[in-house]
Amino acid sequence: QSDLKTTLKAVIPERLQLYSHVKKDLSSHQIGTQTVGSVIGGMRGSRALLWESSSVDPNKGVTFHGLTIEECQAALPKSKHESTDPKSEMLPESMFWFLLTGKLPTQSQINTFSSELAHKGDLPEYVVKSLDNLPKTLHPMTQLSIGISMMNNESVFAKAYAKGIPKTDAWEYVLDDVINLIAKLPALVGKIYSNTYYSGKNLGTINMDKDWSYNMASSMGFTLDDSVNIKDLSKSQSNDFVNLVRLYCALHGDHEGGNVSAHATHLVGSSLSDPFLSYSAGVQGLAGPLHGLAAQEVVRFILEMKNAIGGDINHKVKIEEYLWSLLNSNRVIPGYGHGVLRKADPRFTAMIRFGDNRAEEFSKDDNLQLVKNLSAIAPSVLTEHGKTKNPYPNVDSSSGVLFYHYGLQETLFLTVIFGASRALGPLSQLVWDRVYGLPIERPTSVSLKKLAGL
Ligand code: FAM
């Protein structure tokens, strides 16, 4: 008598044969409004989601309400402390305002909004205690999703819904939750960083007069005035780090609706789960290595490659050989490829520009140089390999080494910053989902046999 696994194993070959036939021979067949290829191919090419704030053109990359990255950098409000912070990047809270409303905020609106976020930025005591009790070995992304989902205890939407609210009012409660959730991210990120790597030591404070990114950097111990400066940064390096957080988080906040973190948030929210539960689902999707976890994978890969090629970062042949060794062992090249893009990601380019604008700081940074060299070499290797539809660098290719440069060298942690950033777009869409009163998502499924016409 065979056990469960043996029984399953016995039926797999026949099913796989049918799957290959359907994929190879029937992909272009229509089933309802979809092709068979789309049903079994991760819904590629299927325009099935309503998303207001950004869109992604395969060749041009992301635009936010029609504005390119450069246009956003020029138009969105920056730090209010211009005199002490002359190189300020656009603020993520400016991006959030723009994503949510479609209107460019004024400096004064953003000054007030930054202050509102800081004033709402403290973590509930039970969240702090619970995080303190988690094993130190728990992946930081797991801690992030736990922290966010626990705060559903604070949800004004869930409480109001339980009492009974008209559907047309739901968006206002959801907006309150969304603002509270985003406000608490800097302290949450800092807490997870400290618990995982600094034995829970208080690394910094939330400053009421500062913006969201400054407070995230501060709570992680990277600023001079409001934290313990565990990284021993100079004043200009500390300013750079804050600006890196600003730029990174503003740029990574939204990438239309079909990516896993955005889609998961939207899907879970469609059941009227509150924003905390909805976004914790998004964070769990972001924690996959084919999505946000690539941020950590890229840095590890760059460090390993540098080691394997004996530090010869300009040696084209050695780099090519290393890439082929990965591909031949059936591994992916992290930071390359994309589900939608067919050119280098403009967010990759913007992050590279961040380093180039600080040439003195980065002139001796081998990791960034290797990332740049790789972006000139990997596309031809991947093209020759012949599988990926997009052989160019994606969003995760360059950002990790920039953070690494300033001392954020705990690679497992990088996706947490991505997780804080990605709250902006999906949560602004969640507000609109409730404004429109969108229904629960409920597509229908179909069996392989049915697809095969059996
Ligand atoms: N290295 C090697 N092979 C790759 C590859 C890469 N970087 N990118 C794609 N391929 C392969 C892919 O595995 C697939 O092989 P099989 O047919 O054997 O399954 C084939 O090329 C076709 O894939 P595709 O249609 O070009 O890409 P997908 O839309 O299926 O997947 C990615 C897109 C991003 C998941 C994929 O390119 C990948 O795995 N990249 C490496 C991981 C990565 O950098 N992820 C971060 C993505 C980032 F944008 C984000 O979301 N944060």
Descriptors for this entry?
Citrate synthase, 22 helices, 2-methylcitrate synthase activity, two-stranded antiparallel ribbon, Citrate_synthase_AS, transferase, Cytochrome p450-Terp, domain 2, globular, binds alpha-fluoro-amidocarboxymethyldethia coenzyme a complex, mitochondrion
Shape descriptor reads: globular
CATH architecture level-2 label of the largest domain: Orthogonal Bundle
Outline the low-pLDDT stretches. none
The ligands found in this model are: alpha-fluoro-amidocarboxymethyldethia coenzyme a complex
pLDDT averaged over residues: 95
What percent of residues are in strands? Answer: under 5%
Can you tell me the CATH class of the largest domain? Answer: Mainly Alpha
**Integer count of domains:** 3
Helix/strand-derived category reads mainly alpha
Distance between the termini: 30 Å
